[in-house]
Amino acid sequence: MRKKLIGAAVAAAVIAIPVAVKFGSSKPGREAELATVQKLAIHPSILATGNLVFRQEVQLSAEVIGKVAAVQVKEGDRVARGQVLLKLDPTVYLAEVAQQEANRRNAAIAIERAQINVANQERSLERTGQLYKSKYVGVSQYDDAVHQLDLAKVELRASRASLEQASALLSQSREHLAKTEVRAPIDGTVTAVPIKIGETAVASATGIAGSSLMTIADVGSIMAEVNVDEADIARVAVGQQAKVFPAAYPDQPLTGKVESVAMAPKSALPGAQSQGRNYVVKLHLEDPKLALRSGMTCRVEIVVGGSSAKPAVPIQAVMSEEIAGAKDKDQIRNASYVFVIQDGKAKKTSVELGLSDDANQEVTKGLAAGQTIAVGPARLLRELRDGDQVSAKKADAKPADAKVAQR
């Protein structure tokens, strides 16, 4: 009898202990990262890439062909407008000027000769006219005298036209001679001098050797030129704020503002296959303190919109699921939801969404500021079910981060 009582007690203990552990333990089933719903103003943005460029930059090229005789500046020199920077060998153009000056002198001499001829023909006509009135000569002789005077006047006009032509050619030759001295078109700094003494400068803009002499820029004013995809350009407008991240200073963003938006797409290079159209957007940089240089690549975040402060949650807290439409069962739509934590339990709550950035999601309906939600880990959110017990993974619930970034 005693053995039977001991066996029954052991069996009861085996059954009772698991039941007691299951119903008597107060430890929550899951630990999650929690966050508090806060009211935030979401600022979506567009991400674009481009380059830093000097606001005013001039690439000088030769307007006449000639061998470089002297380069009077070097890279980094400050120059003033009108300063002589480079000289070409002027020998050929000096000879051309001398030739045109001689042609002009000949044209002037031809005018003098024509004027003398006109005066002579006028006197001849006067004498012939008197003889004609006195009946000493016939009408044909008188007509010949009139004809000779007309021819002399025509030759005088032709000589004057030749003088004008010679003067124009002389001016052109002198202009060619003057262009053998390359002068600075703006005040600035020499940023590149690709040509050397002895090389031949070529009057061309096709990028062949000798076509580029030097580059001058106003290094005190730099701006950003970025390419915005055609899908986003409609949301970009003059005056919008932006953050510019130069590749050389990725952790030191510059403040910028949209200055202009191109009306036409950027032209693709000949032979290049373009997958889409891009529009050039220029941004003014507000007082950059960094050592920036033209040609540096940069990443830009253009703020294209915003809203008043509304309830927002970390973007990773929002889950989605496919549900059938109310009217058409074959129509599938995505529904968004979050897990609200109430009294230590998860409550699946449907929400309607608004604007977003890369950190936060605006909730237009379904949540109120101050509520606690589960934000991670992602695997837990996928496995979490309505009614599961949840406790904070950390001692304090962390507020949603108000970082503003790309949508």
Q: Explain this structure to me?
A:
- There is one protein chain.
- The chain has a six-stranded antiparallel sheet with strand order 2-17-21-20-19-18, with no helix packed on it. A six-stranded antiparallel barrel has the order 3-12-15-14-13-16. Strands 1, 22, 23 and 24 form a four-stranded mixed sheet that branches.
- The protein has 407 residues and is of the alpha+beta class.
- The protein has helices at residues 2-24, 91-133, 139-178, 378-383, and strands at residues 30-36, 38-40, 45-54, 57-60, 66-71, 78-79, 84-88, 181-183, 188-192, 200-201, 214-217, 222-229, 241-246, 254-261, 278-285, 297-303, 310-314, 319-324, 332-342, 345-356, 360-365, 372-376, 390-392, 398-399.
- It has four domains: 30-43 and 308-399, conserved putative lor/sdh protein from methanococcus maripaludis s2 fold (Beta Barrel); 46-54 and 221-303, Elongation Factor Tu (Ef-tu), domain 3; 57-89 and 180-216, Beta Barrel (OB fold (Dihydrolipoamide Acetyltransferase, E2P)); 91-178, Helix Hairpins (Orthogonal Bundle).
- Helix content is 28%, strand content 34%.
- Residues 19-28 and 401-407 have low confidence and may be disordered.
- It is elongated, with a radius of gyration of 44 Å.
